[in-house]
Amino acid sequence: PLPVSDTAAVADKGVPPGAYVEIAVSDTGSGIAPDLMARVFEPFFTTKEVGKGTGLGLSQVYGFTRSAKGFVAIESEVGRGTTFRLRFPRSADPAGEETGMGERGVLPLRRAGEGETVLLVEDDEQVLTMAVESLEELRYKVVVARNAAEALAHLKDVQRIDILFSDVMMPGGMNGSQLAAEAQRLRPGLKVLLTSGYVADLDEGQVIGRGELPVLNKPYRRDELARSLRLVLGADDA
After folding, report:
1. How many Å is the Cα radius of gyration of the chain?
2. Side-chain half-sphere exposure of 121, counting CA atoms within 13 A
3. Helix, strand, or coil (residue 64)
4. Interval 70-78 mean pLDDT
5. Which CATH number is associated with domain 2-89?
6. Angle between helices 125-137 and 222-233 (to 10 degrees)
7. pLDDT tens digits, residue range 192-226?
8. DSSP 3-state assignment of 129?
């Protein structure tokens, strides 16, 4: 474990002093210029050519590290490379013991009601595939969109859509929150659940209220997705 006992050392990280476990990843690349260091975790920020990167990788690293109540430290020298240090609070539980789930771990999945349909909006093909599989396993009908424009086109159709489940960060000029506002204008009363890997200070899979829009933190398990959907849809068994 890595002792981080100096309160001042973590004062700007939003975490308490204590024992942390560190995972360090280093490269021997070109390094990061000092004037760019403060921006590397911004969603969609990239120094790569158009089409060579989304600018979402490091923002997702930041998101899941913060969701685990940890923080990221960066050391970089132009021309020599960069080291990212992911620091997570050390657990006091003995190794090998499962914790945190309790009796909830044996609860049955909260599945869809008759004909309930999810409009899934996700631009990452791998995440999209996994989300579709999870939703279908939960017996939802799934309508897929890879960006806000496709989602709005589906919303203008006559087909049934009970809930919009959309990533927050999307390319194309309209993010998930903006899409939700337009979706509810087109279909008043439409339920919305957003998801993001760039949500700080949340427990994994926790649904929180940001105004009137709940957010499910990535990465999420199937049971967390199931419960979150039932909570937002207002099912009695949530």
Report:
1. 20
2. 33
3. helix
4. 88
5. 3.30.565.10
6. 70
7. 999 987 654 344 444 444 456 788 887 788 888 99
8. helix
**Measured distance between the N- and C-terminal CA atoms of the chain, rounded to whole angstroms:** 39
Q: Is pLDDT of 84 > 60?
A: yes
Angle at Cα 185 formed by Cα 182 and Cα 191, nearest 5°? 85
Retrieve residue 236's tokens.
């009695």
Q: What is the location of CATH 3.30.565.10 in the chain?
A: 2-89
Sign of the torsion angle spanned by Cα atoms 223, 114, 136, 215: negative
Amino acid code (one letter) for 16: P
What region, left, alpha or beta, does residue 9 occupy, with left being phi > 0 and alpha being psi -120 to 50 degrees?
Answer: alpha
Q: Does the domain formed by 111-233 have CATH 3.40.50.2300?
A: yes
What is the per-residue pLDDT across 135-184, written as a single tens digit (0 to 9) for each?
Answer: 999 999 999 999 999 999 999 986 899 999 999 888 788 888 899 999 99
**Percentage above 70 pLDDT, the chain:** 71
**Intervals of CATH 3.40.50.2300 along the chain:** 111-233
The overall pTM is greater than 0.85: no
Q: Using CA atoms, how far apart are residues 1 and 166, in angstroms rounded to an integer?
A: 37
